[in-house]
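User: Is it possible to get a 3D structure for a protein together with its bound compound? The compound here is guanosine-5'-monophosphate. I've pasted both below.
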Amino acid sequence: MERIFGRPIVTQEQMRTRIKDLGRQIASDYANKDLILVGILKGAFAFYADLARAIRIPLRVDFLVVSSYGSRAKTSGKVKMVTDLTENIAGRDVLLVEDIVDSGLTAQHLTKTLSKRKPKSIKVCALLNKPDRRQVTVHVDYVGFEIPDKYVIGYGLDYQQKYRNLPYLAVLDQVDEEGEAT
Ligand code: 5GP
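Assistant: Yes, that's possible. Here is the predicted structure of the complex:
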């Protein structure tokens, strides 16, 4: 599968080093706070597991499963929460953990929705950031890597629900605006 799909752009070693740094920074920023790390599934699962273990302070874990409607190019802007949190976030410091901020719609929607539950603070951490594709203004507080406008797979990110288990991040060159291989 590794030969057919993708040109590596972030190696496992680069990933490890960057996530360690992010973990250290987050641990220092959230020392003495009531941190709840909210993973956005499915895409964030690999990043989340590594990041959580790199943050060496006590924290809570929780997850949201979301799905977005529409194609990659013509997203409807509707983000559906398929599975909600199990923890109460009121008065807690929420850090949303995303695989990638692309249009920004998911981060915007979740930040708005979860803010209504009165957390003490809410911030966003994304492994990847694609600023060229932004449709709405969102502040991403922690970013692993800024990447160009290319379709990427691996390390949690899929191509038609597969390749999430690729241990590095690769660019899928031949993919059109709908996210379909050409
Ligand atoms: P948004 O456009 O709302 O910022 O991102 C929505 C979701 O689209 C991301 O969480 C991610 O699952 C998916 N996505 C965006 N860009 C890519 C990409 O390059 N590759 C893959 N596999 N998924 C992407």
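The pocket of guanosine-5'-monophosphate is lined by residues 43, 68, 98-106, 151-153, 157-158 (CB under 6 Å). Strands lie at 7-10, 35-41, 60-68, 79-83, 93-101, 121-129, 142-146, 151-153, 169-172.
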